[in-house]
Amino acid sequence: MIRRQGKVYRVVQPGYASAYDQLMQSGLYSQLTTAGQLLPHAELPVPETYAGAYRFLEPEQLTAISYPYEWCFSQLKDAALLTLDIAVQSLASGLTLKDATPFNIQFRNGQPVFIDTLSFDHYHPEAPWVAYHQFCQTFLAPLLLCCYSDADSARLLTVHTEGIPLQMAARVIPFRKRFNVHMMMHVIVPSKVKGGGKSNSQYQAAFSETKFRQLLESLRTLVKGLELPVHKSTWNHYYEEDTTSAYLQHKAAIIAGWLQQLKPAVVADWGCNTGHFSRLAAQQGAMVWAIDSDTYCIDKLYRELKPAQLPISVVSASITTPSPAIGWENAEREPLLERTPSNVAMALALVHHLAISNNLPFDFIARMFAAQAPQLIIEFVPDTDEKCVQLLQQRTRSYPEYTQEQFEAAFARYFDLTDRQPIQGSGRILYLMKKK
Fold this sequence. Notes:
The chain is α/β, with parallel strands linked by helices and about 425 residues long. It has helices at about 15-25, 30-35, 75-90, 130-150, 165-170, 180-190, 210-225, 240, 245-260, 275-285, 295-305, 335-340, 350-355, 360-370, 385-395, 405-410, and strands at about 1-5, 5-10, 40-45, 55-60, 95, 105-110, 110-115, 120, 265-270, 285-290, 310-315, 345, 375-380, 415-420, 430-435. It folds into two domains: about 65-225, Transferase(Phosphotransferase), domain 1; about 240-435, Rossmann fold.
């Protein structure tokens, strides 16, 4: 992958020419792109800089990039199932996947899409699947940890970028689940092998195409059966249970009016909860980043958005500890804050969490949002509000600096006030601000 003038390109070297031609001529490329499973590309003339290359490709450019450590359980599960489905379809064209990692998946309008055209290689009968162990460590292990340990376990992929050791996943599997034939085959037994099952040697002997298909189907059965435990987090029923109808309707009307006025191309909804206002922004024509630290909120939002296919990119991440730059020279994967600049940032029912729960001065919060967007829609929750009172009761000190006056003064250093509207049915206030 290379970047030129803000676009991403792929270079096909002569050594990959045969596999690339088979992908294109077998009908598999057309089949997968038509189904929305593979990112399409255009072939361009090879630039002089890459003289000697076989092909120069311009993939469809994605407007939002997220990484597996920012995904909820359901995103990771859908990405795993897509990878297995593509592996099965490839066999019919005499091809296989040489890579099976979630880093080869992105989400486009709420649907997973495979982005690595150069991961397809010739299928050699009797050979084991070279990507089997990678699939188990990068997909299966984090999914198991999400199910049986912590729903945020996909975030471990920031440090285990090559995959989470199967031993780690095996330790959390409930006793009654350990004897499932698929679990035993792909997790329990390999986790007891020295090196964690890094070898495919158990499949070396007469690994026919039939056995390959059986392996893929076994993995699919195991992944398909995994479900995130039913869990009511602090926030994933916030709008259904903890707000009044008048408050929600008036708040939505104000924000819709401002978005119609601004007509932003990109909106970042920080602390989006289950995405009520992310949907509103998308319906106004914006591409939306929906970001929240509560992975149950994000999982609920992702599952609800799938049928609608709205231009909303959901991300499980905290604004206080956003994903950093990682990888080779800290440049392989960009930090979240560099991927989410927007025309309008929204911070709704968020500032009291930042100021009280995270002890962040208003000035710090204002400066961060000023770096993210030229326009800001932000909600101030007074210290008399029930939710704010609950936060204050959990702290060991008082917050005399948490006042509307100090909030407005801090943000005035970075923004000009465009509009201010009290929200009916509450003491809360919405602000529309423009960066100085």
